[in-house]
């Protein structure tokens, strides 16, 4: 039976899976998911997968029909490829849930050109990734196969999907641009958005340097149109450049809260906004210095500053002026045009928009830059708010050429699966294998269509290794999300991830005799980055966590001192190493909970296009783990912020932290609600954002709201930057 003619009425796996949602004798029928998985393999996969007499015959077919990159295959003796497959097969990989298998075959497996048959299974996709990212290195290929077949490492969706294919998209997950205050730069930014959206990945663009609507241009008052028309142009660009119809282009624009257009910027997401200004598909983000929070606390007036005047007075683009340090001087400077609003009015407007749309994201810019170990300034972020790297502005002439080539950002992502990583026999080798795979993507990326992005990539070799499955680990090991043991585990795990990625990057730098650009100006080179690790032991503090890490070497201050000496001597290859991206469909393939977040439901319900509803049980769900799985919508979000905050201290970039709220909040969840309405208000979000700020959270991604009619607002369905 061909895939294209598959009759859903003749298969049993959808009905079996749907029985998950029907309790029997008061219990969840978890066995029905296993039955659905077995039926799916039997009824769909086995009869619809191409079979070959030998592995060599299979590869001949793949090459002849232009499915596989022949240059990749020719890097290896075929006897080695057979050895690799022999190893993968003997590991006896099995999907653990119906959703895992369904998602893999629906989204990742190569199919024949007519979509009638599957050309590969999970082992084949892992083999393609291992061969591709090893780049001819047999030992690395075997190590990568080991990490992926045991699902300790998961490349990001574009990387996992495209690796080894001859007809492939790009492997890079996301990009970050900024524009300067002139028409040439705006035109170049729009062109760059088109080019980058075409090859894949989400694009973040900072517009804070643009002068405000109504500003003077060459002596003509009210000549400037401001940021909103540029936003409309960018939205149309992303809609047009849709990656050959495979998926919608996706972008986010960032603006400083001290930009005069801030209110009109937020208004573009209002449901009742005029179509001339409304942006439907473009995401919004804010860059927020510490000064904004101070003005909120003081219930003070707040001044917004003309970017053109600021640049003229300070000799540098608006993005690069330290507003917290210079705020009073800018207020007092008569040469800088300014606009007065109330800080709390803006704060409330932000919360209103987050209630209504889930936007804007919030980047706490001063927190980011205080923690940034690299020389330069972070001014913006990406589509999912976790990529935080230094940039420098470019200058463009009338021919759209660069008179000054700045540096922008590309980043490729991957994720550890926490539950499975804790079962590795060699944490260091596992992490090194991942860092090498991610570094290969950075090394091989061809991004000359946007020279500033290519320049930044060549300078920094930045990667973004993250994690998923934290909530699953907690439940499996009977820890409540956000409790003392959970925080202790989070602290140790991410300290180790930080340490071993540094070890790996240092090893690569030593091998290649190459560091990222300006390493000598970084806090790694002067040793300042290591101060906290030299003077504080970040090892386990509770017995359960000590037992969990008993089989691993947990780095001590002495280990950190030795690592610091090696880094001072040989440097680091990667300027950035860690970032916690959101995890989308690949979480299901890994039988993992998403990112570091709590679950939404013990049995998750997903609407799958023409198929209907599919149900996914939380990983390791059982009578024993049931009490440890609590919906994010029923959790105090301060517990989520606490978990992210303790991980953040070890992560050089950011984390896509989502807040989960209900329209009607559970009684007793937040003490400030006692005696007041149980409805979510702007005050609730104001308090939580302030709490996140005090906990030194670098970014707040979406606000998702579960409404009283059982709907969700602010749900992120974009997978451009997700793992």
UniProtKB/TrEMBL annotation:
Source domain of life: Bacteria
One term of GO molecular function: ribonucleoside-diphosphate reductase activity, thioredoxin disulfide as acceptor
Keywords: Allosteric enzyme, ATP-binding, Deoxyribonucleotide synthesis, Disulfide bond, Nucleotide-binding, Oxidoreductase
PROSITE patterns: RIBORED_LARGE
Domain Ribonucleotide reductase large subunit: 560-582
Name of the top EC class for this enzyme: oxidoreductase
Reactions the enzyme catalyzes: a 2'-deoxyribonucleoside 5'-diphosphate + [thioredoxin]-disulfide + H2O = a ribonucleoside 5'-diphosphate + [thioredoxin]-dithiol
GO BP of this protein: deoxyribonucleotide biosynthetic process
Record EC number: 1.17.4.1
GO cellular component, one term: ribonucleoside-diphosphate reductase complex
Pfam families linked: Ribonuc_red_lgC (PF02867), Ribonuc_red_lgN (PF00317), RNR_N (PF08343)
Family as reported in the entry's similarity comment: Belongs to the ribonucleoside diphosphate reductase large chain family.
Job description of the protein: Provides the precursors necessary for DNA synthesis. Catalyzes the biosynthesis of deoxyribonucleotides from the corresponding ribonucleotides.
Name of the protein this chain belongs to: Ribonucleoside-diphosphate reductase
Organism the protein comes from: Weissella diestrammenae
Gene designation per UniProt: nrdE
């Amino acid at each position: 039976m061909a895939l294209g003619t598959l009759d859903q009425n003749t298969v049993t796996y959808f009905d079996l899976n749907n029985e998950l949602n029907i309790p029997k004798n008061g219990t969840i029928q978890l066995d029905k998911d296993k039955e659905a998985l077995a039926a799916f393999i039997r009824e769909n996969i086995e009869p619809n997968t191409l079979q070959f007499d030998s592995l060599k015959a299979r590869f001949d077919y793949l090459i002849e029909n232009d499915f596989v990159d022949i240059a990749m295959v020719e890097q290896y003796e075929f006897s080695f490829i057979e050895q690799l497959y022999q190893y993968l097969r003997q590991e006896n990989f099995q999907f653990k849930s119906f959703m895992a298998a369904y998602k893999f075959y629906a989204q990742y497996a190569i199919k024949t050109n007519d979509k009638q048959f599957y050309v590969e299974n999970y082992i084949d996709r892992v083999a393609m990734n291992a061969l591709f990212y090893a780049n001819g290195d047999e030992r690395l290929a075997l190590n990568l196969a080991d990490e992926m077949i045991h699902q300790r490492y998961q490349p990001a969706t574009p990387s996992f999907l495209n690796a080894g294919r001859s007809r492939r998209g790009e492997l890079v997950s996301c990009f970050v641009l900024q524009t300067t205050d002139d028409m040439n730069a705006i035109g170049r930014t729009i062109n760059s958005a088109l080019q980058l959206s075409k090859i894949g990945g989400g694009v973040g663009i900072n517009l804070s340097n643009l002068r405000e609507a109504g500003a003077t241009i060459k002596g003509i008052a009210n000549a400037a149109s401001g940021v909103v028309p540029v936003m409309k142009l960018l939205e149309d660009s992303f809609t047009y450049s849709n990656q050959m119809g495979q998926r919608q282009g996706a972008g986010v624009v960032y603006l400083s809260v001290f930009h005069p257009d801030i209110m009109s910027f937020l208004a573009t997401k209002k449901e009742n906004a005029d179509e001339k200004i409304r942006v439907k598909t473009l995401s919004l983000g804010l860059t927020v210095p510490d000064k904004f929070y101070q003005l909120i606390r003081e219930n003070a007036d707040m001044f917004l500053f003309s970017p053109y005047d600021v640049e003229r007075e300070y000799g540098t683009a608006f993005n690069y002026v330290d507003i917290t340090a210079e705020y009073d001087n800018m207020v007092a400077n008569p040469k800088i045009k300014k606009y007065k609003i109330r800080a709390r009015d803006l704060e409330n407007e932000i919360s209103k928009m987050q209630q209504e749309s889930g936007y804007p994201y919030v980047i706490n810019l001063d927190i980011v830059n205080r923690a940034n170990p690299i020389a330069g300034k972070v001014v913006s972020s990406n589509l999912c708010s976790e990529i935080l790297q230094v940039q420098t502005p470019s200058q463009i002439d009338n021919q759209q050429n660069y008179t000054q080539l700045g540096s922008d950002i590309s980043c490729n992502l991957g994720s550890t699966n926490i539950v499975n990583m804790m079962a590795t026999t060699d944490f260091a080798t596992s992490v090194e294998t991942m860092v090498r795979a991610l570094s290969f993507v950075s090394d091989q990326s061809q991004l000359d269509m946007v020279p500033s992005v290519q320049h930044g990539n060549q300078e920094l070799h930045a990667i973004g290794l993250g994690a998923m499955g934290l909530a699953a680990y907690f439940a499996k090991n009977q820890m409540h999300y956000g409790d003392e043991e959970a925080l202790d585990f989070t602290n140790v795990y991410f300290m180790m991830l930080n340490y071993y990625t540094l070890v790996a990057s240092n090893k690569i730098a030593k091998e290649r005799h190459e560091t990222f650009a300006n390493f000598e100006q970084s806090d790694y080179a002067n040793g300042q980055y290591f101060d906290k690790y030299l003077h504080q032991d970040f090892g386990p503090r509770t017995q359960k966590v000590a037992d969990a890490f008993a089989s691993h070497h947990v780095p001590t201050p002495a280990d950190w001192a030795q690592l610091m000496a090696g880094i001072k001597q040989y440097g680091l290859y990667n300027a950035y190493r860690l970032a916690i991206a959101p995890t989308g469909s690949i979480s299901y393939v890994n039988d993992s909970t998403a990112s570091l977040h709590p679950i939404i439901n013990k049995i998750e319900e997903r609407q799958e296009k023409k198929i209907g509803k599919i149900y996914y049980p939380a990983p390791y769900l059982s009578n024993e783990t049931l009490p440890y799985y609590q919906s994010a919508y029923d959790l105090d979000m301060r517990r989520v912020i606490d978990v992210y905050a303790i991980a953040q201290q070890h992560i050089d970039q950011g984390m896509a932290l989502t807040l989960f709220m209900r329209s009607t909040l559970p009684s007793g969840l937040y003490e400030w609600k006692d005696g007041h309405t149980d409805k979510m208000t702007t005050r609730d979000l104001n308090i939580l954002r302030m709490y996140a700020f005090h906990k030194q959270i670098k970014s707040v991604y979406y606000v998702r709201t579960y409404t009283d009619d059982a709907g969700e607002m602010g749900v992120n369905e974009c997978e451009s930057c997700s793992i």
